[in-house]
Amino acid sequence: MSAIQKIIDQLELQSHPEGGYFKEVYRSKGTINKENLGQDFSGQRNYATSIYFLLTSEFFSAFHRIKQDEIWHFYKGAPLKLHIISDDGIYSNVIIGNDIEKKQNPQFVVKAKDWFAAEVLDKNSYALVGCTVSPGFDFNDFELPKRDMLISKFPEHSHIITAFTRF
């Protein structure tokens, strides 16, 4: 059994729609009412949620966005690169990893409504991270766009969008 499969089995991870594997490990008992969340949200949300998220060099996390800030925490494996396009069309990237001397970030916040994708940088490897979302994640807040939609919105980033979308 491979190291990747052992992690999937031990943490009881499932396939994620954007790519990779995940398991929710925390969902606060407390909730925030819709009136306190603003017009972007439908219904109430938990205060916070967190997941384990495993990516392999074989599969990337496709461009997507959510309505909340998402904090990425690096745990184990190879560093990964987050590709980010703000709603204003500004592209940036950041390396999530534990080698601080190489300017890797063990933790990074993707701002609410930014489009982002992720890839493992080392071949034949994986990255195990955690993702914390506040207000708590709900699939109603998740948007996985079609390639053509993102390219029409950000034509100057068509190369990176094509590389990190599946359809």
Automatic annotation (TrEMBL):
SUPFAM superfamilies: RmlC-like cupins (SSF51182). Pfam families: Cupin_5. InterPro entries: Cupin_DUF985, RmlC-like_jellyroll, RmlC_Cupin_sf, YML079W-like. Coiled coil: none annotated. This is Cupin domain-containing protein. PANTHER family: DUF985 DOMAIN-CONTAINING PROTEIN (PTHR33387:SF3), RMLC-LIKE JELLY ROLL FOLD PROTEIN (PTHR33387). Residues 5-144 form the DUF985 domain.
